[in-house]
Write a structure and sequence with these properties.
Number of helices of chain B: 9
Order of helices and strands of chain A: EEHEEH
Largest sheet of chain A: 4 strands, antiparallel
Number of helices of chain A: 2
Helix content of chain B: 25-40%
Shape of chain B: flat
Shape of chain A: flat
Strand content of chain B: 25-35%
Number of strands of chain B: 15
Structural class of chain A: alpha+beta
Strand order of the largest sheet of chain B: 1-2-15-12
Oligomer: heterodimer
Chain lengths: 127, 325
């Protein structure tokens, strides 16, 4: 009776003006802000957070899921100086992840081709 | 600007229903994200709507509809006969511009099995027995899309049925229905899950401190070898030294036995261990088993594509956010 649609876990409710990402600057801490991603979960949150932590310009990066029944991530980022805003480091992180994914794509294709060449002329493997 | 990582993939074995590979030079977050994507967000086809015209079987409508939904549906490459990624070929029904449904976003299957009609085609000695309605009775309106009847040829040889059993019917019973398959992801319902299993293990980093090991007696070294239930250590016959087994990476299960035994062997508690076995932080052994809907290598490529598309989408949304700041 009260169960939400399963598709509400991953489809944005654009009719009600739900945005994918919103930003709220932190009032008490300098150079910090929280990004809220709607209809996302650990799949994205952990990935982006770990990438942010590798950036020397980031002083703090953490994500949480405020409530397990509401599909939303809060990603809090603090940079080391005011020259670089949280949005900039986040864009850099996402771009780096995009590049890494492209590398992964090439690697996977090459690895599969190599395997097929070495094992049987491009046909299906046996069990 | 953070350093770029350079992930590597090495395939250990590749079958239509299973792929095992090593992912290295990358972080656990990538490995976990890939795993989560393979389980939850790779789009596949599955029966979503069923219109019943005739059902006089022993199972009720929704029971049969549920069973139909769980049948793996293959989008085939007619040249190689492999189940491939359906992501480019179909639109999800929420995105499709058609009003109700169209061949672009859905596939129709028809099933019409009447016991009395089909029974005459069966051999004499079987005519009293119930008839199995299997997935082979589902006739598709799209030549590229067929139900995945078996996982592989081995399973087909061993099976008693001609395909996945839907319901068994007896004399006077008739099942006639139209089933519509749509594209979806596992987050919406498990029937859209392309994998049976998608897991990864950590590569074991086994370090043998040769200096300290030389202080051990032969019996103690043999004890260390024997205490491991996964047999990752061996005693070299010639030199009498402890060495790591050839295929230790395959066998390692990271049990505590070795550690506990070394506690008793050490002269002082704060001494270093003779042998340490740790999780590698950047090398993972993946094993992905499919359900028969997609070939295992296509599941991997599809999950990477989903990740790539997600990053691009995020990038564009963040660019818009930055402009509006």
């Amino acid at each position: 009776m009260n169960a939400p649609e399963r598709s509400a876990a991953f489809l944005l409710d654009e009719d009600n003006g739900e945005e994918k990402v919103t930003y709220a600057s932190d009032t008490k801490v300098s150079n910090a802000g929280t990004f809220t991603f709607n209809k996302e979960d650990h799949t994205l949150g952990n990935l982006v957070r770990m990438q942010l932590l590798r950036d020397p310009n980031v002083r703090f990066a953490g994500y949480k899921i405020p409530h397990p029944l509401v599909h939303q991530i809060d990603l809090k980022i603090q940079t080391i100086s005011s020259t670089l805003a949280p949005i900039d480091v986040l864009l850099n992180a996402v771009e780096d992840l995009g590049d890494e994914t492209d590398t992964l794509n090439r690697e996977a294709e090459d690895a599969i081709e190599r395997w097929k060449k070495e094992n049987n002329a491009g046909g299906m493997g046996q069990f | 600007m953070s350093k770029q990582r350079d992930p590597k993939i090495e395939i250990l074995s590749l079958y239509p229903h299973e792929i095992k590979f090593i992912l290295s030079d990358t972080d656990t977050s990538i490995a976990n994200t890939l795993r989560r994507l393979m389980i939850a967000e790779v789009p596949t086809l599955a029966i979503d709507l069923v219109e019943f015209h005739e059902n006089t079987t022993v199972l009720n409508d929704e029971y049969i509809a549920h069973r139909l939904g769980l049948i793996p549906i293959k989008y085939m490459d007619l040249v190689t006969n492999r189940g491939i990624d359906c992501n480019g070929a179909f639109l999800s029904h929420t995105e499709c511009s058609c009003e109700h449904r169209c061949p672009r976003c859905s596939v129709e299957f028809e099933l019409d099995v009447n016991f009395d009609v089909m029974n005459v085609t069966r051999p004499e000695n079987e005519r009293d027995l119930p008839m199995s309605v299997t997935s082979t009775s589902l006739k598709s309106n799209n030549e590229y899309v067929v139900p995945g009847h078996f996982l592989n040829a081995e399973e087909q040889n061993e099976a008693h049925d001609t395909g996945i059993s839907i319901v068994k019917i007896g004399p006077g019973q008739h099942l006639k229905l139209k089933a519509i398959a749509r594209m979806g992801i596992s987050k919406e319902h498990a029937k859209w899950c392309p994998v049976a299993v998608a897991t990864y293990r950590f590569w074991p980093e086994i370090n043998i401190n040769d200096e300290l090991c030389s202080t051990l007696t032969h019996e103690q070294k043999q004890q260390l070898v024997d205490v491991c239930p996964d047999r990752i250590l061996e005693l070299d016959e010639v030199s009498g030294k402890l060495v790591v087994a050839e295929n230790a990476w395959e066998l390692a299960t990271f049990t505590e036995d070795l550690k506990l035994l070394q506690e008793t062997m050490k002269k002082r508690p704060e001494d270093d261990d003779f042998v340490t076995v740790e999780h590698s932080q950047d090398r993972f052994i993946f094993c992905v088993e499919g359900t028969g809907a997609m070939d295992a290598e296509d599941i991997l490529m599809s999950s990477i594509k989903v990740l790539s598309d997600r990053m691009l989408y995020l990038r564009s949304k963040l660019d818009i956010l930055k402009e509006n700041m």
